[in-house]
Amino acid sequence: MIEITDLKLTHIVDQRVLIDGLDLVINDHDKVAIIGEEGNGKSSLLLAILDPSLIERYIDVKGKINIHRHKLGYLPQTLDEKTKELTAFEYFSMIDDLYEISPKIIKKYAKELMIDDDLIYSDRRLSTFSGGELIKLELLHILLLEVDVLLLDEPSNDLDLKTLDFLENFIKNTDKTVIFISHDERLLEACANKIVHIESLRRKVKARATVYKGRYSDYISERRRSFDIQDKHADKERSELAKKEARYRKIHDALEHDLRTVSRQDPHTGFLLKKKMHATKALEKRLDKQKQDLTAYHEEEEAIMLGFKKVKVASSKKIIDFKLDELKIGDKLLASNIKLEIYGPKKVAIIGQNGAGKSTLLHIIKDMLVDRASYMPQNYDEKMDEDIDVVHFIKKDPTKDEYSEIRTMLGSLKYKDDEMLHKISSLSGGQKAKLYFLKMIYERKDILLLDEPTRNLSPLSSPVIRSVLKDYDGAIIMVTHDRSLLEEVADEIYELDQDGLHKR
């Protein structure tokens, strides 16, 4: 059991409270999902559970976290560059007493992870493994440490559909306690038996953490239902109060009229009218008290507001006629005889196993289209200058009018004025993803090239992005393994393998 009591996490630089008063009990074998919008402190919570000293440089941690005698294993969102340059053997050699671990144990975990146990002795650098292979190696590394609690930060990022299925089954079936962050709604629904929802309300000045015992879809339904009931109560109370205030105003105005017109020769009537007015004033105070005690309307984190400007793409217009004899990375041949022809505002998805060359192919298509398309890479650092602020990422040298327009657009993403001056380097992965969408909206191109566009978005933001892409009037070519995105947005799906692109 892990017990968290009255936990408060505060960002030291801007004193923004990320989590306030969180009480959470995690029982053995629980599968706990942490959800919330980007930048709300999900990863900080995971690291606070692992070891509060890891975040003390930028997060003030108050409250109690008792892990008792549990041994924790942590899988980060991404490996640092230094670790990526290690060979698999060097990486596993970091485990103390590696050679004392029974080969049977190694084979057991390798079989559970569906990988070859000989990989731990490989001289391949970690940077050369696909996303799916790498996460399995990381999980094997953690399991060999004989931990009983797994802390997984966005484990579904960069996985192909087959590996996503594996990860889902692994989390569901492992006998270990799992605390994980994920943007994948299907993964949340299939695996989690407890939800921790971190929110930032009132323009990021109030933090709220909700703990729900049950499935993700039940939480979303229950949350919506409780909000609806609360709002109906609030509406009813305000309606009844409005009727009382109208009656009060009618009585008050009538008494005022009578007091103005009562004859000075009739002091008794005047006295009675003043007495009634005094009683009426008392009623006004009671109504004011009722107004203060009204049921509040529900509070929830404001949804992002995005929408592409209308573009015109005729259905007969040839968007792309692409042919490539060989797709290579260095001397390695990934695929041959690739053909892709798109007419009109089609939304095309490219899938394939990790390492098939999907991102490389999309990059080549981008270079071919030159300035006709807006491009969102999988690796944000590829196109982001970490030292500029968010406004100048959207437009390098904006005019006064452009600057004002961009700030208005950033407001639609719930950026406060001071946050618009933050450097790119201070943003979370999800915040960077939203900025890319904003940049593409600003560029107003009629072709979008998207490499895993929802990989860093929360499960609450992803439905908005899917809706925006579905309504986009131009053409889309996207690499994705987001199962909801494939179902709701893609008109055509192509799979990339060694023999080229094949329509599914």
Provide a descriptive summary of the structure in words:
The protein has 15 helices and 17 strands. The protein has 504 residues and is α/β, with parallel strands linked by helices. It folds into 3 domains: 2-216, P-loop containing nucleotide triphosphate hydrolases (Rossmann fold, 3-Layer(aba) Sandwich), CATH 3.40.50.300; 225-292; 318-503, 3-Layer(aba) Sandwich (Rossmann fold), CATH 3.40.50. The strands form 4 sheets. Strands 5-6-7-3-8-9 form a 6-stranded mixed beta sheet, with helices on both faces. The chain has a 6-stranded mixed beta sheet with strand order 13-14-15-12-16-17, with helices on both faces. It has a 3-stranded antiparallel beta sheet with strand order 2-1-4, with helices on one face. Helix 14 links the parallel strand 14 (447-451) and strand 15 (475-479). It is globular. The two termini are 46 Å apart. The model has no long low-confidence stretch (mean pLDDT 85).
